[in-house]
Amino acid sequence: MTHLAAFDAAFAKCPLIAILRGVRPGEVEAIGEALVDAGFAIIEVPLNSPDPLDSIARLATRFAGRAVIGAGTVLRVEDVAAVEAAGGTLIIAPNANPRVIGEAAARGLVALPGIATPTEAFAALDAGAAALKLFPAEGASPATLKAMRAVLPTGTRVLPVGGIAAEGLGPWRAAGAAGFGLGSALYAPGLSPAAVAERAAAFVRAIRSAAP
Q: Percent of the chain having pLDDT more than 70?
């Protein structure tokens, strides 16, 4: 199975990306277990977290065949190879750097860059993006997404990220959001696995009830 096919399968199971910004390697497997048990199938460790490649490697080993693991805040071309070497298959960024996107695509990895305008969205797709991260979602709205989707190629997956709460998924889904990236509303440094499990369960319930 290609990395893209694995991502597609995980996304179909649960279109929520858990963003573990600030997570430490010593706790990441317990946090990951809480997420996977709740139904999550995609986990991101931002590269500005402590020892992120170690965390990615631990997650990739622990959850092989159960979850897709990747990196966020991937800003440099050379970071793509490092993430791949650690076992990550998903390359997420807050921006749309065509060189980073192209490097990920050339390696058969899944690129999910950040965009805020149609111009950025089309450029990212042309560079090889598999899906798009609408970021920051706090600076946009469901109406923005609906207008953008009217001009994007049919089937383009757009995921709002930033300030997403469980009770706010409905309007975004109605506007065409394919899924969501979830940050501090799901995980923040210092939260116990039990607390993360409770938040994760709430998001899984919300995404199921907000299905388009």
A: 99
- What is the pLDDT at residue 211? 66
Catalytic one of 27, 84, 103, 133 = 133
Query: Model confidence over 26-60: pLDDT tens digits?
Result: 999 999 999 999 999 999 999 999 999 999 999 99
At 12, the amino acid letter reads A
pTM value is 0.98
138 is catalytic: no
Burial of 84 (0-12, 13-18, 19+ CB in 10 A): buried
When pLDDT is averaged across residues 82-108 and rounded to a whole number, the result is 98
Q: List the catalytic residue out of 27, 44, 84, 103.
A: 44
Within 136-192, where are the H helices? 142-149, 169-174
Q: Is 84 one of the catalytic residues?
A: no
SS3 158: strand
Asked whether residue 212 carries a pLDDT value surpassing 90, the answer given is: no
Report the candidate in 73, 49, 64, 58 with the shortest Cα–Cα distance to residue 26.
58
Helix and strand counts by DSSP (H, E) for the chain: 9, 9
